[in-house]
Write a structure and sequence with these properties.
InterPro entries: EGF, Reelin, Reelin_subrepeat-B, Sialidase_sf. There is one protein chain. By secondary structure, the chain is mainly beta. It folds into four domains: 156 residues, Sandwich (Jelly Rolls); 176 residues, Galactose-binding domain-like (Jelly Rolls); 147 residues, Galactose-binding domain-like (Jelly Rolls); 83 residues, Jelly Rolls. Helix content is 3%, strand content 36%. Strands 15, 18, 19, 21, 22, 23 and 25 form a seven-stranded antiparallel beta sheet that branches. Strand 48 and strand 49 form a beta hairpin. The structure holds calcium ion (3 copies). One calcium ion (CA) binds next to loops.
Length: 691
Amino acid sequence: MYFLLSLSLSLSLSLSLSLPLRCDHGYGGAHCVPLAPLPSILREDFNENLAAEQWPEVYGAERGTLSGEPLKSGTALIFKGEGLRMLVSRDLDCTSMLYIQFSFKFITKGVPERSHSVLLQYSVNGGISWLLLDEFYFPTSTDTLFLHLPLPARAQTNATRFRLWQPYNSGKKEEVWVIDDLIIDGSSFNNPPVVSDNFEGGPQDYNWLFYPGGNTGLYCPYQKSGLEESAMVFLSSELGEHSITTRDIDVNENTIIQFEINVGCTADSSASNPVRLEFSRNFGATWHLLVPLCSGGPQPSSLCSTELHPASVYYPGTTQGWRREVIHFGKLRLCGSIRFRWYQGFYSSSTSPPTWALDSVYIGPQCQDMCNGHGTCVRGTHCICDPGYSGADCSQPDTLNPDFLKEDFEGGAMDAERFRLLSGGKHSRKCGIMSSGNHLFFSEDGLRMLVTNDMDLSNARFVQFFLRLGCGKASPDPRSQPVLLQFSVDGGLTWGLLQDFLFSNSSNQARLVALEIPLRARTTSTRLRWWQPSENGHFYSPWVIDQLVVGGSASGWGPLEDDFSSMDGRSWLLHPGGTRMPVCGSDGAAFAFIEKSNTRYAVTTDISLGQDAFIQFDFSASCSVTNSCYAIELEYSLDLGLSWQPLVRDCLPTSPDCSSYTLQRLLVADTYNKWGRVTLPIPTYARSVTC
Ligand SMILES: [Ca+2]
Ligand SMILES: [Ca+2]
Ligand SMILES: [Ca+2]
C-alpha cells in the first residue's frame, strides 16, 4: 500500500517535471492548453479523403456511395468494418459552440441488440474520458435522417473533441451506417450579419454550410451583364441533393435578401423541379417558404394583406434567363437567427432536373430606399445602379422612360425594348383574339407573367388590351385563378393591383379591356405586369392577350391630324384590316381597308375637344360605281372605347330640333363611290363633360 502510494507520488512528480516536453503539438503550458485558439467550426462533406488533422482517428469506415446513390451528395462515410467502428474529431474551440448536426442512415437486416447503438460522445480532456451526448438506436433500417444535437454547457470548452462510436456490430453484411454533411458549429454568434457572395473564384466558405450538387462555373453567361459571370451551378447530371444553405444569420425588419437566379437557361417554362427559397429558425430541422403565395384568394396568411405576389418558388423558364430577386424582410415579419436555403430536391440516377444557378447573393442591411429597384445593393452601404439609372439611390433615369407602349405581339419573340420579363406565354396564332395575326398565348406551366419595362406614365391616361380567358367553345375550368394586372412605381419592389380578371362561362370570348391609369400609378417610372397566380405552377385554362396600348394624355391631347404619309402609332390605337397605301387615285397614301378581314375598323386615341371642334376627312367607299351597298359607321366613345354611339344621329325635317338634315347612315357606298370630303361639327353630346 505504501509502496503503491509512493510510486503514484513519484509518478506525478515526474509528470509535472516533464510536462512541457509531453504536450501534443499546438498545446503548451503547465496544463497543455491550446497555444492558439482552436477552430470553432468543423464542416465535412466527406467528398474527399479525410484530412488527418481534422479526423485523427478513423476506424472501420470508408468513403463511398450506396450502390451509386449519394446520401446527400458525392461520397459519404460508410461504417461497415467488422471490428471497431469509430470516428474521432480534432479538438475544437467550443466556447460559443451551439450544435452538432449531420445526415445519418442506418441499414440493418435483422433487429440489432441495444448494444449496437451508435454513440455520440465528447471529451474535454484530450480523449482520456468520454461523456455521452446522444445514443442512436434503430431497430430497423432508416431513411436519411437529419440529426441535430445542441451542445450541453459542459461540452463548451476551448478544447472539446467528439467521436461517433458503435461499440458492437453485426458485421458488414448485416449492419451498416452512413454519415454525410457533418457540421459542428457555433461561430454564428461572432459572424457579421451579412452574407455576400458573387462566387468569383469559388464560394466564400464561411457563408455557406453546404451546397450539395453545386460547383462554381459559368451558366448562361451570354445573358448576364457585367463581368462577374461565375455562379454556383447545380448541374442536371449531379446525383443527390441540389441545394445551397447559408450559415445562420441575424435578420431584422431592415434586412433584405438579394440574389440572381436562373433555372433552366430556357424560355420554355414548366412546373417541374422548381427551386424554392426557404428559411429555418431551428438550425435546419424544419424549413418553410420564405415568401408565401399571395394570390388574392381567401388568404389565411396575414402576410398577404398589403400586396399580391408570387411565392419564393423559381420555376424553369423566363425569357431573360437570369433575373434579380430582392425580398425585403419588413413585410415578412422575420427576425432573429435564421438560415436560408435554395432547395431543388434530391435526385437519383433516373431523374434529370433542370440545371440552375445562383449568383450575386446578398443578405444584410438594405441600401438607401432599396436602390429603388433599379440597382444592386452592396453590403448595405451603396447601390450599383442598373444601366439607365443613376444617383446614390438609383432613382434618376438617365433618359426619360417611354410614355407610350403599343404591342400587337406579331413578332416571334419578346421585345426587350418594351418588356423585361415574359414567362409561360408565347407568340402564337392559337386561341385567336383578333381575326388574324399573333397574340400572346399563355398556356405553359410554371410562372405565367408579362412585365413591361419602366414607362413614364406621369401624364398617361389609359391601358387597354384585348383579353380572352379560356380557349375553345367550352367554358373555362372554374378552378382557374384570375389574371391580375398590377403596377409598380419602385422598380418592381412592391406591386399595387389595378384590376383582376376572372375566368367565367363567357370569359373565353375576346373582350376589350380599357382602364384609366390611377393617380398613384402616374409616375415617371411605372411598370405594369400581368400575372396569373398558381399554388404549384399548374394551371387549369390558358389565356391570351393582344393589342396592348398604354398611353394617351391625362392632360388632354389633340388635335389629331393625319395625312397617312407616315406611321403615327399614337393617333390610331387599333386598325384591324387597315393599311396605309395609295388607293383609288388618292393623293399619296390613304388609310385603306381592302383586306378580306372579318373585322375592319380604325380607332383613334382619346382627343380633347373644345366648343367648336369639328371632324373632317376625305372618304371613298369604292373606286367606282358598284352595285354593292354598305355603310361605314362613324362613332364616338367617352369611356376609353368600351361603348360606342353614332356621332351623327338621324335628323329628319319632321324633328323639331333639327337645324339641318342628316342621316346616321352617312358614309354609304353609293354616295361615296369616289373621293369626297366630309366635314362635321362635333355635337355637344360627343364631348366628355370632364374635358
Ligand atoms: Ca458528401
Ligand atoms: Ca458571379
Ligand atoms: Ca396581334
